[in-house]
Amino acid sequence: MQAPTDFSLELDSPYSLSKDAVAFYRENGYVKLKNVLSPAVIHHYGPIISDLVIQLNTLTKPMHERTTYERAFLQIMNLWTRNETAREFVFSKRLAQIAAQLMGVEGVRLYHDQALYKEPSGGITPWHADQFYWPLATPNTVTVWIPLQETPMHMGPLAFAEKSQHVAIGRDIEISDASEKILSDELQRLNFNVNDTPFDLGEVSFHAGWTFHRAGPNTSDSPRRVMTMIYMDKDQTIMEPRNSYQRNDWATWLTNWPVGSKPEGPLNPVIWEK
After folding, report:
1. Number of neighbouring beta carbons within 10 Å of residue 255
2. Is 48 contained in some domain?
3. Phi-psi region for residue 252, left (φ > 0), alpha (ψ -120 to 50) or beta?
4. Which end of the chain has less neighbouring CB within 10 Å, N or C?
5. Is-contact 182 173, C-beta < 8 A?
6. Do residues 24 and 31 touch, judged by C-beta distance below 8 A?
7. Which structural domain range is residue 251 located in?
8. How far is CA 218 from the centre of its chain?
9. Does a structural domain hold residue 32?
């Protein structure tokens, strides 16, 4: 059995999460936390994740020929199944425990991981809510967004519409030019505050599945490299898919595990529990 490294030990050690951070997340649908990962950990795992993105990427069309979604980022999923070091990162108990504490649940499963690399000249990520795509019965879901470099405004950091997880608007809209226009207008009309700020190295965010979020374009000359993991309550329930995207997710990430049951298939291990 491989001995743990200093990097993996950090990934699995607890993070001191304040009561204020938990309260902020539950009120606003997201929270940004500084110094969650050390520069050493990011510099160790980041290049490995980037190499996998290069190896596995199949989107090679010129930027001007891509759709809005394709211009937003290169999207590579379930890296943990392709590389043992990536698996070590994805299975971080520190990050999973934070997710469980924010949701107030006894443990979390992995839904899936995904690398989101916004290339130089990459476009906006339109307003959307992730859970539109997921055939999951409860809102106990959360995504951790981990920049693998400092992310100033010109690289397109993630932005959040505070408290938007509580409203029903836009829950039937896929990510698109239409979602950007409709949700931008509606969120502005309803006076939602938008947190659109840079990320320091080691700073990560957690956002709820129904929290609306977006990102600006990457106008720098370097890729905006981000790794994400989507967690769900370990006692989450699979629901009957409501759209074609949820049917695809049910087959792809939940291995068609029975509707009405917990998602206990091979791709959805429990990462942390009390």
Report:
1. 13
2. yes
3. alpha
4. N
5. yes
6. yes
7. 17-267
8. 18
9. yes
